[in-house]
Amino acid sequence: MEPATPAAPAVRETLERLLASETFGRSERARRLLRYLVEREQAGEADRLKGLSIAMDVFGKDRDFDPSTDAVVRVQAGRLRELLQHYFDNEGVAEPMRIAIPRGGYVPSYEPNAIRLPEEAKAVDAESAAAPAAADFANAATVDAAPLMATAPVPSLARQLRFFWAAMALVIVMLGVLIMRQGNAFLGNDEAAVPIETANTGSTTAPAVFDTLPLIYIAVKADGPDAARIAASLRAGLAGFDTIDFIGRDADATRDISADPVSFIFDVTPGPATGDITVELQSVATGRVLLSRNLTPSESAPSAIESAIGSLLTSTVPASGAIYSYIDQSGVETSQIQCLVLSNRYYLDQSARTHEAAYRCLEKLAVAGTKSSLVYSELASLHLEAATDHYAYPPGANLEQAMSFAHRAIQMGPMSPHAHRANGYLNSRLGNTDEAIRWMRKAYELNPYDLGMAAAYGYGLIFAGRYEEGTPILRRAVEAFSGHPTWWDYGLFLGAFMQGDMKRAAIASESLRTTASKSHYLAARLIGARISGRDKLASDLANELTVEFPKFTANPRATFVDRKYPPDLTDRLVQSLRAAGIGNSS
User: Fold this and answer.
1) By three-state DSSP, how is residue 285 classified?
2) Partners of 278 in the beta sheet?
């Protein structure tokens, strides 16, 4: 008789514990592959779990993928089987259910995780053995194994059956308790959280699935080469973002959508005109459309598709995009999502208040044992900001600790664009120009569809004095994504200024007015106002600089040198500020 298919919630809960475990914490690819295989099987698509579809959906390969020459799927599946075996032999020894990937295929199987008692214990009367075991489980007490070791005659078939059914009842009870606890933790029930003391606050919090990220599917419902090209670009782009978990296919219509509060799907459908393709982003749980963009044949052409998809994804997938914004507004964010939203707010409104809120949130995740390289990437950058801008929190911030966070991020996510960008940013601020460019170029190469990585690379090139290379890259990012943070505008101001494009420099400097006051931002606005001939504004900005930043006003060169600006850029900025009456004594 065929074994009964386990209930979807039970599979889901086991999967989430696996993904949050120590065993899987250091293998991003294994986590992604396991989630994909289980999600697709549970969605009724087991027949589609073939090497080609896995290569495309999980590893970003195209339809030309040849398994005879590229063994990525077989190798990663083998690694996944080893990790599953290791988990259930160690961390997951008490799991009520086992998940396995049988050899010769990729369809997951599920079976009860048998409770292993000593051989002698099998002879004990099932009724006398099950009762104390259930009581001990309920009271979280240690089972006294001594009575179980006594010898006894071989039990009859009836007694063996009684033992079997008693053990199964115990498994069901354990499964129910674990599901309730894990479900409450996912929904934010603090009573179900594992208490862990957090740094500097003494408070306790640790949701069981704090590393959960938005889950993204893709469904192609249009035919033709343009649709195929758009779908391939979407897959390649989504596979490179580490702010999401990418599945790659549609969530089945029979799926329990209440279990997917942070799941979303990109639909690729025929557009309104012949040759057009519409890309629509929806919430799986509510059906709400977050984005709908029509791509014309010219936009989906091979020469333009990467730029079009890059703009679309940058506006939706990063922490600054539509997905995180929707989750934040809906109040269903997990701990990591909440922290990334707070970090993004800091870069949009750089103040001590927004910085501390983001840092404390991420710090709690680090103390709770997060396995996310994203958390350490953000901590590295925020710690550097605290050290250079002299924020009160965290006390004693220094470059060494920031670099330690950045190194940890790379260890946890060796293919993470965010981890590479953080290391590039730190090296740039330390004056290690060549090393900074190397890191930032790698971040850009890991995901060329993320305009944030392009902006960071362009910014790094500008701060290396390579204005001709960096300014066009940063300009394209700024023009393609209207919701970008202000540091993009500042970098573009510097690049355009050094290239002699004063009109563009003035426009970029004007965009800095929406952020909190910073000496170098006010200096850029002052220079931009003088370029534009806005004398009254220039006078007001000069007065604001003098009042708010007297140390900078007295000697702006010292600030630029401390921030490792290229010498020629420093000279030009100091010269322009002197003409505006700032730093005449420097």
Assistant:
1) coil
2) 269, 294
State the Cα–Cα distance between residues 2 and 8, nearest whole angstrom: 17
Strands (E), 4-95: none
Q: Which domains does the chain have, with CATH numbers?
A: 8-112 (no CATH), 119-186 (no CATH), 215-327 (3.30.160), 509-586 (no CATH)
Q: Tell me, what DSSP letter sits at residue 205? A: -
Alpha-carbon distance 46 to 54, whole Å? 12
Q: What are the distances in angstroms from CA 455 to CA 216, 447, 449?
A: 24, 12, 11
pLDDT(186) > 60: no
Q: How is 480-514 classified by DSSP, letter by letter?
A: H-TT--HHHHHHHHHHHHHHT-HHHHHHHHHGGGG
3-class state of residue 4 by DSSP: coil
* DSSP type of residue 447: -
Burial of 207 (0-12, 13-18, 19+ CB in 10 A): buried
Q: Report cis status (omega within 30 of 0) of the bond before 297.
A: no
DSSP 38-56: HHHHHTT-GGG--HHHHHH
The CA-based dihedral angle spanning residues 162, 163, 167, 168, taken in that order and rounded to the nearest 10 degrees: -40
Count the alpha carbons within 13 Å of 134 in the hemisphere toward its beta carbon.
Answer: 15
Residues 271-292: pLDDT tens digits? Answer: 998 889 999 999 988 889 999 9
CA-to-CA distance for 577 and 565, rounded, in angstroms? 15
Length of the chain: 586
Residue 378, CA distances (Å) to 73, 394, 426 in order: 31, 14, 12
Question: What tens digit of pLDDT does each residue of 85-116 get?
Answer: 888 888 787 778 889 998 888 999 888 775 44
Give the residue among 217, 216, 192, 218 at the shortest CA–CA distance from 204: 192
- CA pair distance 565, 429, nearest whole angstrom: 9
Has residue 315 got a pLDDT over 50? Answer: yes
Kind and range of the H or E run holding 441: helix 433-446
Between CA 168 and CA 490 the distance in angstroms is 64
The dihedrals phi and psi of 579, each to the nearest 5 degrees, come to -65, -25
E strand or H helix that includes residue 230 = helix 225-240
- What single DSSP character describes residue 122? G
Per-position b or e across 176-201, b if 16+ CB within 10 A of its CB = eebbebbbbbbeeeeebbeeeebeee
Task: Please return the burial class of 263, using the count of CB atoms within 10 Å of its CB with bins 0-12, 13-18 and 19+.
Answer: buried
Question: Closest Cα partner for 272 from 294, 290, 300?
Answer: 294
Grade residue 124 by pLDDT with cuts at 50, 70 and 90.
very low
Cα Rg of the chain, angstroms = 28
User: With contact defined as beta carbons under 8 Å apart, do 392 and 353 qualify?
Assistant: no
The pair of three-digit structure tokens given for residue 455, joined into one six-digit string: 């902006």
The C-alpha atoms of residue 475 and residue 458 are separated, in whole angstroms, by 8
Residues 6 or more apart in contact with residue 363 via CB below 8 angstroms: 198, 199, 200, 379, 394
How many other β-carbons are positioned within 10 Å of the β-carbon of residue 427? 22
